[in-house]
Amino acid sequence: MPNSACAPRIARDFVGSLLRITDHPALADDARLCVTEVVTNSHRHTDSWQIQVDVTVRQREVTVYVKDDKPYALPVPGNSDTQQEHGRGLLLVENLAAQWGSTVYGGRSPVAKTVWFTLAEGAAGT
What's the rounded Cα separation, in Å, for the pair 66 and 59? Predict the structure, then answer.
């Protein structure tokens, strides 16, 4: 999708719909929240032309991958200070996901990165 202010909503709707039609409604709300946070970070902190969202659906878990072409803007969870207006999105992902992380592509000359998270039925927020 284009990197725009609409990207988080597009990603959220795509992931939510996909999980509902693949019989994973228990994961849909957490997945929608997490993908919104990760895509929002990509939109705000990179000037990528596009943001790519891929989803791997398994029997009892789902992994969502958010890719942009800015490998040097790696995600770091903020602090949990409730007075801050921004910076808590990755903490939320960390608390809801069974696992999360990032992958940089391109070896010595990085060209892109993916931030990913896995949600599992019966885990943290589900």
Answer: 21
